Description:
The complex is a heterodimer. Chain A is an all-alpha fold. Chain A has 13 helices and four strands. The radius of gyration of chain B is 31 Å and the shape is globular. In chain B, strand 8 and strand 9 (522-533) form a beta hairpin. Chain B has a four-stranded antiparallel sheet, covered by helices on one side. Chain B has a two-stranded antiparallel sheet with strand order 1-2. Chain B has a two-stranded parallel sheet with strand order 4-7. The termini of chain B are far apart. Classes of the chains: A mainly alpha, B alpha+beta.
Amino acid sequence: MxxxxxxxxxxxxxxxxxxxxxxxxxxxxxxxxxxxREGRQIETGARLYHNQCATCHGVNGKAxxxxxxxxxESIGCQGLPxxxxxxxxxxTSARMSALNWExxxxxxxxxxxxxxxxxxAMPTWAQEYGGPxxxxxxxxxxxxxxxxxxxxxxxxxxxxYPWPETIDELLVTFPTGDAVRxxxxxxxxxxxxxxxxxxxxxxxxxxxxQGNLAEEAGxxxxxxxxxxxxxxxxxxxxxxxxxxxxxxxCGDSSSMPTNFPARMGDSETxxxxxxxxxxxxxxxx
Amino acid sequence: xxxxxxQVKEMGLKQAAIAKADEAVERITAGMNISDxxxxxxxxxxxxxxxxxxxxxxxxxxHIRPSFYHTEVTHIYPTFRMGWLSTxxxxxxxxxxxxxxxxxxPSPLVAYSNMWNILSNVPLGQLIRNMHRLGAxxxxxxxxxxxxxxxxxxSYKKPRQFTWATGMILLVLTLMLSFSGYLLPWDQLAYxxxxxxxxxxxxxxxxxxxxxxxxxxxxxxxxLGAGGLLRWYLLHVLLMPLMLGIFFFVHYYKVVLxxxxxxxxxxxxxxxxxxxxxxxxxTYFIPDILTSELMWxxxxxxxxxxxxxxxxxxxxxxxxxxxxxxxxxxxxxYLSWSQGWLKLADKTLVVGFIPALLVAFIVMPYFExxxxxxxxxxxxxxxxxxxxxxxxxxSNWMGTPEYAVASSPDREVSIEFLPEQGPSLxxxxxxxxxxxxxFLPGQEISGNPHMTEALAELKEAVLANSCTxxxxxxVTIPEDEWRECRVVTLDDGSKRYDLAFKEDxxxxxxVELIIxxxxxxxxxxxxxxxxxxxxxxxxxxxxxxxxxxxxxADSNYEEECRFxxxxx
Lengths: 285, 568
């Protein structure tokens, strides 16, 4: 019987030593698993992003390199850039302040993915709003998007181009436009998502069709040239709002995103994009 | 009775305190004072009247335990302690289960993140979860072995038929307890194992309306969801343990009532002497059985704690996804035999056969009434039992993915090298050593043993799923390692390329692994397969690059590889 007592006591003491060993390494293990959880969320987010989001936001999140999900053909990117310092950098990023978002960055992205952005090509993704994704999948995608935030990305200065009052002043710096590039940018910036294609007047869904803009624009505001009218409308959508939109009266405030001054002005040379698009629209020679 | 103050006056403080302590101990043990306990532990003869019998008469905890056993049944043989071990495991599962319940909510919205919370935020949470999981598997094994032992020693025979019947019910309850816990983590493994398994209800040999309603009750909805999870949770933590507790007490009451049966050779044929124990063959519960049980408890705790820490890891896959079916859905190993049976026979037949077999087992002792328990007289019965065991082992193997219907050869390579779930050699390569670039199977990368080892595994997987028509296209695999193709012409005129033991493999494939860094700390691993029709490079048999896995620097698949039950 003494043998049983000795064996039992030794086993008990060994168990205590093992538990002590486990307890000592526990804080490190908990930390590893916390990181592993985030890591695996990002992995799942990456898979979902490439299946669902890359079609519009681009393979690398820069709203470049978009491919049709069914055919694999290269198409214009409908979405905004996500791998982008204006979205990701700072506790309150540039895009959050542009939209008067007062919550956290995580909640901003989570809310946008979940409920979509009304009036744009961005649909609702959460199942509770009729989309295809579960809550956990959306937080995985959010973790993936937030993972683009790096020191390198955020060390790029948030350049704000000093937009001149009139288009003529801008044309002093950017005298010529390229209509072919403009056509591509018209899709890349997401214009076609709301305003449709120039050759089909029924393709506009949210904003007015632009196929006849070259003739129309000059008549909208008395005493203002068409080019100046469009220039102001892109940079400050609420300055002038037309009455009729494809889906009914447009209302008092414009559905047009107000972040084009930022998107088209985040570097010294970027305003060329605006000039190219306006050339494509037939407003500039 | 003198008060403590009087005692102090009479005997002095020290003696009075000792007397008081003695009295307290005697009350707690319901009959044994300090010197009785010491003498019992020393192994001395008890004084008269024997104080070691009083706890059996007066205390609650020991009243159900017999005060002595026949010495013959206290050795390892014939019981192997299996019945006691089963009870121990039930207590163990209850304790670890209650701890886990604190951190768990049975809702699909949070169940899976609860699991990660247990792993990443609860001190010793991973250990507790592993202990519960390992304990569940050990319990199934112990209960099954207990039944086997009972059969082999013939202990199910008269008068213990009813004990056997309750034991069968306890075995089923143990399996169902173990299986009902399977769904709770709400990961892919849980969701699909359960979905596939309970879909068997639909095939039961009964009118469709009954089957469909049983399935509906089991799932809580047309497919598993919030309702189903809650139902299986309640089964797991409430109904099953309650039933098991009730049947345990019936079972144990019968065990004590009839006594533990002696080894078959010890008594005359047809006799049952378990309850007539001569004085000189008695082993008393206090102290011998009690110390023995404490020792085994300590050893079991040691094994379960150490095993959960180093040997056995409870898996956690990605979040349950009702629309994505994993490539290989597997039942837990203790139910694998039923998946094996499904490959042998029609589903309705199998689903009908299992309850029939169960009933047959339960009533078996009432029909198998041979008087002798001796092995020599039970050749037929024991042979049938061993054949049945062999059949179960083979069925179990047939239920594993190794015996599964293979999908396309490129998928087989992909899933072995970069499985959707769990670790693999490649996924466990440390992030910094996972080089960006294009790699070939079997390629050696100097100074990078992990990548080299993983690519060697890719080579093995490719070789196991391909053959050569004499023009191997992967330069890093030596020509003599390829096996010749066996060309089979199918009815429609197309050709199939086989290996000796494998149908449909890739003739002279080109396989490439592309690793890119797509985000800070995130790499994508993509497998590219290109197989052309031999002799006609313009016709593609396989051209795919859609197997893409993402690996994050912190994902820590290496950690999982520490455990013996993970394949990497």
